[in-house]
Design brief:
Blueprint lengths: L2 H10 L4 E10 L6 E6 L5 E2 L1 E4 L6 H13 L1 E12 L5 E3 L5 E16 L8 E7 L13 H15 L2
Parallel strand pairs: 1-7
Antiparallel strand pairs: 1-4, 2-3, 2-8, 5-7, 6-7
């Protein structure tokens, strides 16, 4: 949790916060996507997190990718922005958020894949036809949209 979010939480407790997030769907040269098993809810998702005060969204996406996977993005492609009631989520600790999630696709990256944070217990590339069923709730719609897009482009 960012210092800014922690500071806000000291005033509002578990009350809903509007939060801007940056996420990265990493796709390898086999067309598989990288997923991380979160320790807070035991579900899978892509790398991402809150944008810090004054931080560019693209920089936040790169930072989160590196912090959570050890990978450095060479290129990011804007995928989509997700918001609204579908992005309302209550964390296991009771903190409620309404996320505006700006999601990128990264196909060009380097570095050594590492489990580099206490926020994750596993990290693995998955074929899009074999995605785990237990996707973190705020990430279900973005991942479904990504898979749908990939299946449409592979059927041409």
């Amino acid at each position: 949790m960012s210092d800014y979010i922690m500071w806000l939480r000291s005033f509002v407790g578990h009350q809903p916060l509007l939060q801007c997030g940056a996420g990265v769907i990493v796709e390898n040269d086999k067309g598989q996507i990288l997923l991380i098993k979160r320790t807070d809810n035991g579900c899978w998702g892509y790398a991402g997190g809150a944008v810090e005060l004054g931080e560019k969204v693209e920089d936040a996406a790169c930072r989160e990718l590196f912090e959570e996977t050890g990978l450095l993005a060479d290129n990011l492609e804007l995928f989509s922005v997700f918001s609204g009631e579908d992005n309302r989520y209550t964390y296991p600790n009771g903190d409620e958020v309404h996320n505006i999630d700006i999601v990128y696709i990264c196909r060009e990256f380097h570095g050594e894949l590492l489990l580099s944070t206490s926020e994750a217990s596993e990290i693995k590339f998955f074929d899009i036809n074999c995605i785990p069923a237990n996707i973190s709730p705020p990430l279900i719609i973005p991942i479904e949209k990504y898979i749908s897009m990939r299946k449409k482009t592979s059927c041409r």
